[in-house]
Amino acid sequence: MGIDFGDLFEKKEIDLSDLRGKVIAIDAYNILYQFLSIIRQRDGTPLIDSHGEITSHLSGFLYRTTNLIEAGIRPVFVFDGEPPEFKNSTLNERKKIRVEAMVRWEEAKEKGDEAAFKYAQASSQIKGNMIEDAKKLLVLMGLPVIQAPSEGEAQAAFMVRNNDAYAAGSQDYDALLFGAPVIVRNLAVTGKRKLPGMGVYVDIKPQIIELESGLTGLGITREQLVDIALLIGTDYNAGIKGIGPKKALKLIKKHGYIEQALDELGEDIKNLAELKELFLNPAVTSDYELKWKKPDASGIIEFLCIQHDFSEARVSKATERLIEASKDGQQTLDRWF
Fold it and tell me: Where is this region: N-domain (predicted)?
């Protein structure tokens, strides 16, 4: 879920066309959870094949990624590796929340309660062969798949700093802490979306956030941004009770460093040095290759339609769009590099 200090940074709305010809290193787990959350039936039930396997994420990767490629975007999907040990408590807490949401969803479904969809979204979890199936489909689509040694956002940030991508794609802001010069939000949810629990639709557009201009505007360094995050609380530490983004910013600007701020508060953060190091020098790899290949139309159809009961007519149409968009995209890429 990441840390929400987005209000501290200016978010610039753009059109998908503004990203034409640009490589986006997408946090695959982040976008997979989005697909699991939003691609559901009215009562919150996800898409399921005849074997009882959830396929909402596969639908998202095919149709919504094809939309991105048609817009001229060159997506690269970066998958998480082994999570840092500090993240275990967060992962356990998330699991507990999802189990509780699952119970509430079942109760709401029985009552015909409109809140069922909201609870269903909160119950989304990665299980079974979801990751392997997602990787397989993306490879069949001709897209680069990168396996990170640890956090996908850290790897995506490294790829942007290494000039192999223009931006990191994620709904979370953690990529900024990992040093991504640019992040793009709302790639998977662009368009009209219904607000949860309300009959109101809003127009959602992609957003760009630039690290350096944001830091300059706040008058802080990236190291101080990490200090702010640790005061608020991250995926790896609970933070200090009662400290939000604005108060944390004020404390760090007053003291310069988190250690002095903690002294004023009379608080302590366990493993502080290691947590800082996790963000400032995360585990990443330079052993990757970015190659976009021709989509395997027959492979996509066999995988989605034969194995997972997708509509062959719909998949064939999407695959035709994907192949045509990939031709145009490769010409753009050749010029970009």
Answer: 1-98
Closest to 322 in 3D by CA, of 77, 71, 144: 71
Binding site for Mg(2+), by residue number, is 27, 80, 151, 153, 172, 174, 235
pLDDT digits (tens, 9 = 90+) for 271-314: 999 999 999 999 999 999 999 999 999 999 999 999 999 999 99
Contact indicator for 37, 194 with CB cutoff of 8 Å:
no
Written as six digits, the tokens of 157 are 């940030």
Q: What number is the average pLDDT over the span 26-35? A: 93
Q: Is the pLDDT of residue 161 over 50?
A: yes
Three-class HEC string of 38-54: HCECCCCCECECCCCCE
Strand partners, 76: 25
Structural domains for the chain: 1-218 (3.40.50.1010), 219-281 (1.10.150.20)
Q: What pLDDT, on the 0 to 100 scale, is given for residue 20?
A: 96
Q: What is the DSSP string of 287-317?
A: ----------HHHHHIIIIITT---HHHHHH
Which two tokens mark 201?
Answer: 């639709």
Measured torsion, CA atoms of residues 306, 308, 310, 312, in degrees rounded to the nearest 10 = -10
Of 61-70, 90-99, 174-183, 285-294, the range with the lowest mean pLDDT is 90-99
Helix (H) or strand (E) holding 312: helix 312-336
Beta bridge partners of 185: 207
State how far the Cα of 109 lies from the Cα of 117, in Å rounded to an integer: 9
What is the structure's pLDDT at 334?
46
d(CA 105, CA 127): 18
Torsion of CA 149, 152, 156, 162, to 10 degrees: -10
